[in-house]
Amino acid sequence: MALEFISPEGLRLDGRRPAEIRQLRANLGVIDKADGSATFEMGNTKVIAAVYGPHEVQNRSQQLLDQALVKCEYSMANFSTGDRRRKQKGDRRSVEISLVIRQSMEAAIMTHLLPRTQIDIFVHVLQADGGTRSACINAASLALADAGIPMRDIVASCASGYLNNTPLLDLNYLEDSGGGPDVTIALLPKLDKITLLQMDAKLPLEMFEKVFELGNKGCVAIANYMRNVLLENTKDLAFARGVVKV
Amino acid sequence: MLQSKAFMKKTRRGQVVKVVREHYLRDDISCGAIFCQSCEKESACLSSSAPNILIVDTNVTLHHIDLLENNAIDDVVILSVVLEEVKNRNLSVYNRIRALCSNPMRRFFVFANEHHKDTFVKTMPGESPNDRNDRAIRSASLWYQKHLGQGPPILLLTNDIENKRKALQEGICTETVQSYVESLGRPELFDLVAQVCDSSLAEMDIEDSRPSKKKLIYPEHRPMSEITSGLQQRIFHQGKLRVNRYNPIEAYVNSESIDEEIIIYGRINMNRAFEGDVVAVELLPEDQWKEGNTLKLIEDEEDEVEEKVGLAPDSVDAAPTSLQAKPGDFGSKIGSRTCGRVVGIIKRNWHSYCGSLEPMPMPAGVGGAVNALFVASDRRIPKIRIQTRQLGNLLDKRILVAVDSWDISLRYPLGHYVKTIGDIGDRATESEVLMIENDINNRPFSEQVLACLPPLPWSVSQDDLKCNYREDIRHIRVFSVDPPGMYQIREANQMIEEFMLAANISVAEKILKHYPLCALLRRHPIPTPKMLEPLIRTAAAVGVKLDITSSKSLADSLDNALGNNDPYFNKLIRILATRCMTQAVYFSSGELTPPEYYHYGLAAALYTHFTSPIRRYADVIVHRLLAAALGLFKLPAVFHDKVQLNSLADNLNFRHRNAQMASRASVELHTLIYFRNRPTDAEARIVKIRSNGFIVFVPKFGIEGPVYLTPKAKDNNGEESCKNSADWIVDEEQQRISTRDGKRVYMVLDVVHVHIEVIEPQPNRSKLVLTLLK
Amino acid sequence: MTEHEHAASVGEDVELEAFRRLYPLEFLEKFLKDGVRPDGRPLGRARSTLISVGSLPHAEGSAMVKLGNTTMLAGVKLEVMTPSVDFPDEGRIVVDFQMPAICSPHVRPGRQSELEPVVSEQIRNALSSSMMVDLRELNIAPGKAAWMAYLDVYCLDSDGSLLDAALLATAAALADLKLPEVAVTDDGKVLPASSDVQEHRSLKNIQSKRLKLGKIPMALTCAVHPKYILPDPTAEEEAILKTTITVLTDFSGQLFSLYKPGGEVLASTSTVQDCFALAKYRGKELQKIFNNAVIDAEADDAMVED
To answer: Which of A7, B137, B340, B731 suits a disulfide with B281, CB 3.0-4.6 Å?
Structure first.
């Protein structure tokens, strides 16, 4: 019997309703040596991102005269998945995700303000339970903000899918393995611009619209959460520096 | 709120890994009461006028689903913890309870207690899953009690003594199902209540009712721990119990741990195991293997073995007598086979059975509960004792009965009445009986299944035409011819058949080449010389020599078996040959070696079913394999899963066999109805000689059955009298039976004339009888 | 603070930072003379140490260790292996120390830090010489199945004394490791404990358990200045002083090994003895922190189970 991803009572296997995001948690400034860093958790998916830069371009031949060079590396801890990972660094999937993160971030960073510099974004997955791509983008976005890199907008990402004839938001690993389509969106919420849209598996167009709309709403909700985290963090910093009096 | 659940799981690579899942608790889960002030009411159905709001535990749901389905029971809360347990333990009950919950005419509400922040409970250290779930049920009951304070009282139905005690302690109103049904004052509901062993019933079957002298009929089952360690040390063997369809006091167990089939003789050794139960078996000491007559000592008259007149068998699988050794038959040497006894039941295969009540006089007085014995139409099932208050209504009906328990002090298991199918002998009733008996689902397709289809009316769309893996061949004239049965040797001479065979074979080759480990093929095992022995013996008796070295040589020698001026002789030999063989079966190629793929009946190295995807599920599977082999679609995951693929093949074979059984049973039913008012004389052929007569085959009607030369009688000891049969001399080698004076001689394949009629030895028990016309 | 004062303090910050970069040794010595370290701790003390276990629910055992800013995350994943013929009742522990790019500006993506294999090897040696885990504890069915424990330690923030922190994370993750309840068939196939008896013959259940631990190894890295010995140096201190001595002991102070990987200062016997004394003191301190963390984890056990 096929797995019942949504009970007739409208609850998913983990107790969420179809349009609900998992519990979100984020922390800024978690790596002392980095210029900016953040952890981002979506349920049991947990990633850590560090930003180094802007600094001098390490390989002079890559230097860009009119804008910053953005580099990104994605990696996964061996214990991040149920079955121990055996893949080496630089496998195809890692390269692909590194590229996706970099391109999503480049759309937001005001690279023209930082010519001849390099910005390194490193993302490391500590626990994977579905939606790692989105969590990486969210963590990287917060780490960039933490590093004070000028940005047009934050980038918020969320995945949505379609199982048991129902659009579902923020799939966990079990749902992700359910064989249905999976749409990952990254949004610049203030500008209301999509910077990333990925989909696997086939989906009829009218269904796609519903799934896409749901994913978009997820991104907006996540963006609001991220904004609050940044705001709280700024308040804390200001307090620590003595800018704000108690 | 967030909880996490951790458990171990086996991966495809065979590793055991830790799996962690999130578990969210919510505060927006509705209680389902229409009169509730605080909860959302969209799906609410529990009414304020109900005398009680019932909460049922897992076992009550599992065992009393028949009661729950009755309209008298409503306003029931089904907890998600109960649903989950029911789903794991019995999928069919799960589907039934789900159907109740989604039925707008009923008031059953599913409460997601496992995701409600106030009713979720965590496992405590050392707590078993069962105890934890019982606690979850009590926690939800208590919550309902508080939440719906002013509404109808909440009543927890549980038959678990410990759970009931704890519930009372915690201040939850609780009752057993029995006492609750009694309190309703509706006697007709009583029949639906599952029976557990109680002393008043036990007394019925035991001679001495003094408690200290309670006679135990069956040995105790061993505790599970002992069984597990016994299996490990190979003292016990585990396998599915298969009861002989034609001799229900004989059963077989095939176990991986022992090469031979273990035979279980008698009800004591079967020790309350049912057909299909997974049992643990202990071998009997070898000296007891030889006691061929233990049977008579253990069993009593009620289990007598009787052969009936029925449709002629078309393969070994359907033949009652050809293979299995039987007491009283020639050449049966029980001693040569491994015997055992059941020491424990690992998994029950209990479900509902069709049948009727054993005729009994109506007791004096009215309305009281009466104990009656139920006899299943499936002879493999023992009689079942039920309690009923509607005996008068049920005696002439086919009814459905479910088994509940079987105590060691009771000769028969206890069960309860589920529903009435109809009048005995009625064509529609009996047809439904044989559908149920063969587990053939003739309910309409579920909504989920229908949702897989495009909406009606359907027509070819532009998308369909654009599809690159489909071709529009509507301009070509296409017709289809239903393929005839493929089981007879050398019947495929016509062209259509040849095309079909060629298509099937070439598809088999293609999918095997691409998927050597998971191609679904069909094989027909080569009959062993032992299986063909009765055929050779019969042929030799009439002077025909058969060459069985290959299917080709056998076919050739069958072609040459012409008999003297007997046009029917050749056909008869062929029929006898066919029934020596087993049926063809589906299998997954990864399970066997290439020589075993052979299809004997078609003399093909490879074969599969491909041509009829609208009639046979196997063809659908093969189509998917072929589509994947051609690169049109991805290979579905099931093909990578050995266990699932094997169970699929097993199920195909099981369903196929059941369908054939049902179709045979249906023909038998109609044959019986045909002869009911139409006693007929017909020509018959002797196919087997027996000690007290012979088996005849009536070509005109396709039926087969025993003809007794000596009247069947019983002496004082209940032993079948053999005095008369001593007047007949049986020559096994020559397959002939004759009187001492040699005046009357019958040989195998001889033509005799028989009288066919329907008799009714007991009311509602009509049967077909063949008698010899002198 | 007034606007003016605030501006002044920011100005001081800048000046201090310049001095620190241009004259690092002098900067450091200025502090040491006053009996404190640049991060404010007394000369002979280690940084504040935090151990939390069980932070990775996916792993069978896990620990996060913070030694000042230095952060290590260790996780154990189990797999079933066939034991070697020579040691039929022993499992294996495979330790891997890794420094992903996030942890430091000096780690270049795609290029392995030379520290990775060195620290991995040191942890392996420490485990074997302390005999912290009797590998027979990992036995499932002798000769047929045993646990292979993959222990990966990731450095998330690299700020000196990496071996100290990594070894502590290793030990804590092993203390947190819980072998799951499994069932074994006679031919040594290992299945989840919940497996159906009906499908598999002769299953034997093996209870879930934690490992019995022997002596727990610890490391104390000391940066050596001709006049001072600085236990648990930060990355900055390590970089300035260039000479370190690492002492490996158990919590009770029993010595397993010593490392002194080159450096400018030649260590005298008395220096080594001083380091050893510091390690002994540190052992007592760590034992308390370690035990508290692990006991907390065991108390949580019951709650995590489901």
So the answer is: B340
Number of domains in chain A: 1
**B6 contacts in chain C (CB < 8 Å):** 57, 304-306
Q: What CATH superfamily classification does B28-170 receive?
A: 5'-nuclease (3.40.50.1010)
Residue holding tokens 């801890």? A77
Per-residue pLDDT tens for B567-621?
788 888 888 888 888 888 999 998 888 888 999 888 889 999 998 888 889 999 9
User: What's B199-217+350-437's CATH class?
Assistant: mainly beta
Measure the CA–CA gap between B548 and B555, rounded to whole angstroms. Answer: 9
Mark yes or no for CB contact C101/A122 under 8 Å: yes
Residue C15 lies in a domain: no
For A60, the domain range is 24-235
Interface check for C234 against chain A (CB to CB < 8 A): the answer is no
List the one residue out of C110, C104, C77 whose CA is nearest residue A78: C77
Q: Is the dihedral of CA B751, B753, B759, B761 positive or negative?
A: negative
Strand ranges inside C142-292, DSSP E = 145-157, 178-179, 182-184, 190-192, 204-206, 209-210, 217-224, 229-231, 244-250, 255-259
Paired tokens of C302 = 């019951």
Which residue of chain A comes nearest to B451, CA vs CA? Answer: A165
Tens-place pLDDT, residues C174-196: 999 999 888 888 777 888 876 55
Write out the two tokens for B151: 């509404």
| Test the A interface: residue of C56, C102, C157 with most A CBs within 10 Å | C102
CA B660/CA B438 separation, integer angstroms? 9
Look at the pTM and tell me if it is higher than 0.80.
Answer: no
- Determine which helix (DSSP H) or strand (DSSP E) holds A73, and give its type and residue range: strand A69-76
Among chain B residues, the shortest Cα distance to C205 is held by B228
Give the Cα separation of C228 and B355 in Å (integer): 97
CB contact under 8 A, B4 and C57: yes
Residue C73 domain boundaries: 34-304
Task: Let me know if residue A89 belongs to a domain.
Answer: yes
With CB atoms and an 8 Å threshold, state whether C57 touches B122: no
**What are the DSSP calls for B720-741, one per residue?**
BP-TGGGGEEEETTTTEEEETT
